[in-house]
């Protein structure tokens, strides 16, 4: 019996003992074909999925290599059925190929007529196909490239796509590494994406996803459309691109509610893209206005449904998805992978932390006791009002006040969901508040003041959940949230993960009402971070008041 | 008078030859025939011959066919000329099996054997009565040659439009007696002609040796690794299946067996496909670990509890041993054409199941460290079992045997593992215990509320964890997940929050994350707010002083009383016991009806009935040395006594009157004396039945064991066990 770091389970999960001396080597070896599911402190869980195995095939790894790797590092004998399954699954890949034919355009070619006969009889596939050219070849309408790939994937016969990508209109873009250096994992991620053609890069918040985007643009050297969550994020992208690349201001356009510029590099918001005029999406044309060589989806986990659909139609353009938290409470993760592309790069948060690229963070759940009267009103509240009630109790205010004064002098964000609560806190603490209705200009001004240290504390609503870059924020206090949303929790933590100039650690407080659904939701919210190895410490509100934490 | 000559032949055999005959054809001594004449009749009967023929390999069968088509008596030389020199090595084997026998001037074949071998043995027609001059065949006209060519390798029948108006070719052949008219439209090619045309041989192709089995060579170490993984997996499957049914017993269908929904459920639970799930249940069934209760519930038996305490190798052996011999084929479940065949049902028995399985394993033994290619092992198996009876050898059975051997770990990566080899050799299987992954006694708890046991957990730890956490992933390691629901389940099972925490702290190699501690505390706190406990009975009184008195009464300590409020005490004994104890201590309790008595948590149930592993059909048990010897002695005695049977009876009945009554000890002494000094002597004994009536038996003692005597009873011809205590007296005949 060897003593490897891997344990291959019969349900196709793979457990990696990270305290094992071979764990790093082993992680590298299995990364190409196994998907990282959880990475808590001691044992990381990977999973063998069909998609993962096919991606490995696409990247040139064969079944033998996968099997050898599993056997080599496995602590116990690998279940035979899994080895057989791996071989079988991987052999399904590439029996069908999508190719560009000079005469017929896009064609589906097979090396195994039986498989072709099977798939052309499938209900979902038949309508996407054109004329049969010969036994092994059939025409596919070019606009159906995405749809047919998706359907074939579902049937279990993934098509290898040799039809290639359009290069788009060339535009010179290069990284300008004068006063900074691209980090190793960032260039790895960009290369991983480039070799794969399209796909998603998963990096922790604050780990510099923009730079991965910039590096990808430097690979593509073509006109680029960047889709971001909101205008503030759009401007941050622009600033970053100006700083990190050879692009100048005239080459970067903003396409948002306020401006409608189309330039070689255009940054558009999801909001404007999905805005309907007379019942039609007026701005989706943007995808067609330019011969884009690259489309970048920032915060791809938030990709709205209309863009999903549209994305299926632009399969010949390179697509890069960026996210920190590929968890969707609606379970649409699979769709993201099949439309944008497979996960090309993923690394445990704690590993980036260990390399010093994101700040170490401490997560603390502060449990607040409701007063007798509050308990009673909570118990009698309408079910739909319960969360709001317990999340916004007065008692929380005192705790927040205490925490803010405890951390006086540090850059503090107080984050919440409910506007009355935020207004109330802003008043109590005597600090400005940023919420949805705050004008963009005002927001930018306040963020700028916060960055320079002019303001040390800000109360923010969910507008600051994403893509707001506040490098020096070290303390975040969460008072309420969007119920049990795991990714929101992670994104909020992400606000304070930028490495600090003095190497300080960050602190993330989540103030929770004890014995209410607030506490239950908190547990669900923490799951993603816990799976990333962030261990929450639970303290009592009284400890806060006594300064014991 | 053929039987007579066969019987004479049998009489001429020495002990060794008879024993080897019985060993080859165990059906001959089941039951033991009274004398050689009966034995001869049985041995030459068609069913018995057919069994014997079934056990031949292709080469032996060819030689036997040659014997069957040769005029009797024949010699070895003739046979080897008709086949091959190698036949000389086969003929003694046929002789041993009684498929040919020696008589006057050479060998003979039992008549029924020809019937068993079929009408047209080796595609040959009947012998002709007419005189033939085979030389003329060379001058046959071309048309006749064509006819002969078509018929020479069989079938020996040819159709003609009308025998009265034969074609030119046929006409010449008929004229020369090279064809025999059979009926209006059929002609036959006589055997002599065919053999002549076949060049003096019988078969076109001689199958003197088994086709080689080819396959992929495997590394011995990997085989062992894979096999031990399979073994640990199959043990886990059985345990999980039975634990599952212990909590939620499935109901058997009215027609017997398990419904498809239950099968699906189990396959989901075990994480295997349905055929594998069916195999696991059948395995538990044939090894007596589960049974179907009279109320149709499928439940683990008490044997399962014993099984759980065994070492891995013993556990495995208990599963594998019945699998080797069972006539049930779990592979039949879920085959498209057998939609109605249910696992654990009555339709899974197939006569050839065990023999095919044994043959498959034997073939695996011949190719060490090699995973056979199915086609080639199938071909080899066909050579070993060419018989076409019952549809011939089933490829499916072989495929299933291979598949199941892999599941069981008899093979690893398709090649026979060392454990499989040891099992088949009957050797000790201790190596399994040594090679099984070491059990671990700890878990790693992580902050995402999971705990991982990085190897097979020790039984006790696993049991506690199974209560306080859900299993998320199984395999070499186990991943557990804690949640509010699982902690509550633990509390429901009577654990306290502190107990759970202490258990986790003790078991976890890593510090217990604080959120988990909080979770346990929170749930435990809530759990306590509503008091729901489990108890067998309660004692209540409106007078608190009595309650206090009872609580302080030392005599009642056995009740392990617990006061749960000023006027209620609960206790762990059932109400009847508590009441009687209270009464005996001078209290005057009155019973209340059982309403309000709550039972919580799933109850582990066991079958009410005894384990009844399914019977094995179709196979005659392979007799061991003692049985063989016994059968021989019985036969010899029988033979001796046939003609003086009546005299014996007389002696016996006389003896009963004069048989001195002996005590058990004396009987034992006398019996062992007889067994030691006069082992071949028949004895006369008095034997008391259940009602104490003494009957007289004539027996041939075989063996003394544990208070009983194994002996052949002359009256029934069967080997029976006699309780020493019931033997009233013993006398030699």
TrEMBL record, chain A:
Its EC number is 5.6.2.4. It is an enzyme of class 5 (isomerase). Residues 190-344 form the Helicase ATP-binding domain. SUPFAM superfamilies: P-loop containing nucleoside triphosphate hydrolases (SSF52540). It catalyses: Couples ATP hydrolysis with the unwinding of duplex DNA by translocating in the 3'-5' direction; ATP + H2O = ADP + phosphate + H(+). Keywords: ATP-binding, Helicase, Hydrolase, Isomerase, Nucleotide-binding. PROSITE patterns: HELICASE_ATP_BIND_1, HELICASE_CTER. Pfam families: ERCC3_RAD25_C, Helicase_C_3, ResIII. One of its GO terms (molecular function) is ATP binding. Residues 398-544 form the Helicase C-terminal domain. Belongs to the helicase family. RAD25/XPB subfamily. PANTHER family: GENERAL TRANSCRIPTION AND DNA REPAIR FACTOR IIH HELICASE SUBUNIT XPB, RAD25/XP-B DNA REPAIR HELICASE. NCBIfam families: repair_heli_XPB. This is DNA 3'-5' helicase. The lineage of its organism: unclassified sequences, metagenomes, ecological metagenomes.
UniProtKB/TrEMBL annotation, chain B:
InterPro entries: XPB/Ssl2_N (IPR032830). Residues 443-564 form the Helicase XPB/Ssl2 N-terminal domain. Pfam families: Helicase_C_3. PROSITE patterns: WYL. This is Unannotated protein.
């Amino acid at each position: 019996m060897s003593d490897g770091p891997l344990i291959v389970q019969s349900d196709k999960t793979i457990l990696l003992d990270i305290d094992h001396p071979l764990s790093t080597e082993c992680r590298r070896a299995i990364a190409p074909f196994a998907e990282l599911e959880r990475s808590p402190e001691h044992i990381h869980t990977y999973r063998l999925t069909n998609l993962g195995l096919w991606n490995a095939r696409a990247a040139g790894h064969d079944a033998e290599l996968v099997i050898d790797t599993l056997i080599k590092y496995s602590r116990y004998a690998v279940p035979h059925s899994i080895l057989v399954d791996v071989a079988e699954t991987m052999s399904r890949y590439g029996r069908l190929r999508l190719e560009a034919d000079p005469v017929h355009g896009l064609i589906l070619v097979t090396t195994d007529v039986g498989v072709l006969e099977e798939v052309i009889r499938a209900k979902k596939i038949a309508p996407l196909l054109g004329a049969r050219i010969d036994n092994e070849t059939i025409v596919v309408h070019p606009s159906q490239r995405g749809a047919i790939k998706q359907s074939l994937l579902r049937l279990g016969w993934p098509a290898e796509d040799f039809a290639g990508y359009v290069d788009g209109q060339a535009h010179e873009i290069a990284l300008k590494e004068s006063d900074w250096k691209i980090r190793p994992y960032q260039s790895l991620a960009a290369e991983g994406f480039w070799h794969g053609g399209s796909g998603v890069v998963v990096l922790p918040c604050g780990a510099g996803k923009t730079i991965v985007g910039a590096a990808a643009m430097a690979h593509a050297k073509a006109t680029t459309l960047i889709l971001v969550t909101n205008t503030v994020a759009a401007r941050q992208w622009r600033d970053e691109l100006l700083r990190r690349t050879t692009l100048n201001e005239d080459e970067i356009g903003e396409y948002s509610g306020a401006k409608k510029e189309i330039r070689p590099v255009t940054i558009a918001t999801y909001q404007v893209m999905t805005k309907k005029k007379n019942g039609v999406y007026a701005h989706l044309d943007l995808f067609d206005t330019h011969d884009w060589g690259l489309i970048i989806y920032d915060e791809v986990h938030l990709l709205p449904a209309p863009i999903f659909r549209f994305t299926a139609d632009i399969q010949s353009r390179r697509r890069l998805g960026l996210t920190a938290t590929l968890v969707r409470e609606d379970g649409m993760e699979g769709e993201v992978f099949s439309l944008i592309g497979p996960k090309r790069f993923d690394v445990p948060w704690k590993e980036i932390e260990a390399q010093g690229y994101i700040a170490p963070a401490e997560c603390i759940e502060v449990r607040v006791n409701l007063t007798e009267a509050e308990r009673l009103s909570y118990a009698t509240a309408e079910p739909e009002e319960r969360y709001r009630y317990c999340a916004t109790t007065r008692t929380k205010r005192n705790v927040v006040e205490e925490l803010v004064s405890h951390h006086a002098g540090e850059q503090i964000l107080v984050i919440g969901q409910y506007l009355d609560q935020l207004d109330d806190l802003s008043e109590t603490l005597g600090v400005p508040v940023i919420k949805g209705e705050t004008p963009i200009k005002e927001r930018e001004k306040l963020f700028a003041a916060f960055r320079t240290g002019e303001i040390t504390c800000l109360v923010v609503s969910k507008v600051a959940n994403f893509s707001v870059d506040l490098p020096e924020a070290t303390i975040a206090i969460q008072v309420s949230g969007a119920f049990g949303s795991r990714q929101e929790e992670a994104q909020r933590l992400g606000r304070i993960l930028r490495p600090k100039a003095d190497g300080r650690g960050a602190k993330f407080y989540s103030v929770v009402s004890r014995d209410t659904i607030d506490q239950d939701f908190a547990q669900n919210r923490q799951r993603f971070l816990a799976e990333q190895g962030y261990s929450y410490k639970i303290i009592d509100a009284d400890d806060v008041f006594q300064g014991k934490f | 008078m053929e039987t007579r000559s066969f019987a004479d032949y049998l009489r001429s055999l020495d002990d060794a030859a008879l024993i080897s005959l019985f060993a080859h054809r165990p059906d001959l001594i089941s039951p033991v025939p009274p004398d050689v004449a009966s034995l001869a009749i049985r041995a030459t009967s068609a069913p018995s011959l057919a069994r014997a023929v079934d056990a031949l390999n292709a080469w032996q069968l060819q030689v036997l066919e040659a014997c069957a088509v040769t005029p009797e008596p024949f010699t070895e030389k003739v046979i080897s000329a008709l086949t091959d020199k190698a036949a000389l090595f086969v003929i003694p084997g046929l002789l041993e099996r009684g498929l040919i026998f020696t008589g006057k001037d050479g060998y003979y074949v039992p008549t029924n054997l020809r019937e068993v071998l079929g009408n047209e043995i080796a595609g040959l027609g009947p012998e002709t009565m007419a005189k033939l001059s085979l030389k003329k065949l060379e001058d046959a006209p071309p048309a006749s040659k064509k006819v002969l060519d078509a018929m020479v390798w069989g079938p020996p029948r040819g159709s003609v439009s009308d025998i009265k108006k034969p074609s030119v070719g046929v006409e010449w052949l008929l004229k020369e007696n090279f064809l025999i008219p059979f009926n209006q439209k059929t002609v036959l090619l006589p055997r002599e002609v065919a053999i002549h045309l076949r060049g003096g041989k019988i078969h076109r192709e001689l199958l003197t040796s088994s086709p080689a089995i080819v396959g992929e060579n495997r590394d011995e170490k990997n085989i062992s690794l894979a096999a031990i993984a399979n073994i640990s997996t199959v043990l886990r499957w059985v345990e999980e299946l039975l634990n599952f049914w212990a909590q939620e017993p499935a109901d058997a269908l009215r027609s017997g067996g398990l419904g498809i929904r239950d099968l699906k459920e189990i396959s989901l639970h075990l994480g295997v496909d349905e055929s594998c799930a069916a195999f696991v249940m059948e395995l538990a069934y044939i090894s007596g670990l589960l049974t179907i209760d009279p109320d149709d519930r499928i439940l683990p038996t008490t044997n399962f509890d014993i099984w759980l305490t065994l070492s891995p190798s013993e556990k495995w052996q208990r599963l594998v041993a019945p699998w080797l011999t069972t006539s049930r084929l779990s592979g039949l479940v879920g085959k498209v054409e057998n939609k109605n065949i249910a696992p654990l049902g009555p339709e899974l028995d197939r006569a050839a199941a065990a023999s095919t399985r044994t043959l498959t394993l034997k073939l695996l033994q011949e190719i060490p460290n090699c995973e056979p290619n199915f086609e080639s092992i199938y071909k080899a198996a066909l050579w070993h079992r060419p018989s076409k009876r019952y549809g011939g050898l089933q490829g499916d059975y072989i495929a299933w045997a291979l598949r199941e051997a892999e599941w069981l770990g008899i093979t690893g990566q398709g090649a026979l593992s060392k454990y499989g080899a040891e099992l088949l050799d009957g050797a000790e299987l201790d190596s399994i215990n040594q090679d099984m992954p070491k059990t671990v006694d700890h878990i790693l708890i992580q902050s995402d509320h999971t705990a991982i046991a990085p190897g097979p957990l020790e039984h006790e730890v696993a049991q506690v964890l199974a209560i306080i956490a859900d299993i998320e992933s199984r395999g070499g390691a186990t991943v557990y997940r804690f949640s509010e629901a699982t902690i509550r389940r633990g509390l429901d099972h009577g654990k306290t929050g502190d107990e759970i925490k202490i258990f986790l702290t003790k078991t976890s190699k890593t510090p217990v994350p604080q959120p988990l501690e909080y979770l346990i505390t929170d749930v435990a706190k809530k759990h306590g707010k509503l008091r729901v406990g489990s108890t067998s009975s309660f004692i209540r009184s409106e007078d608190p002083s009595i309650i206090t008195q009872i609580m302080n009464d030392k005599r009642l300590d056995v009740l392990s009383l617990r006061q749960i409020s000023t006027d209620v005490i609960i206790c762990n004994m059932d109400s009847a016991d508590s009441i009687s104890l209270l009464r005996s201590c001078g209290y005057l309790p009155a019973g209340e009806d059982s309403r309000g008595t709550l039972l919580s948590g799933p109850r582990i149930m066991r079958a009410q009935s005894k384990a009844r592993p399914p019977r094995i059909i179709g196979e005659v048990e392979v007799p061991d040395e003692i049985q063989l010897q016994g059968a021989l002695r019985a036969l010899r005695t029988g033979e001796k006594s046939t003609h003086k049977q009546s005299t014996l009876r007389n002696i016996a009945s006389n003896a009963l009157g004069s048989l001195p009554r002996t005590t058990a000890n004396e009987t034992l002494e006398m019996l062992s004396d007889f067994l030691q000094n006069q082992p071949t002597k028949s004895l006369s004994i008095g034997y008391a039945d259940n009602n104490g009536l003494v009957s007289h038996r004539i027996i041939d003692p075989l063996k003394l064991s544990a208070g009983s005597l194994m002996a052949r009873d002359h009256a029934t011809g069967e080997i029976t066990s006699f309780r020493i205590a019931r033997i009233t007296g013993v006398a030699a005949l």
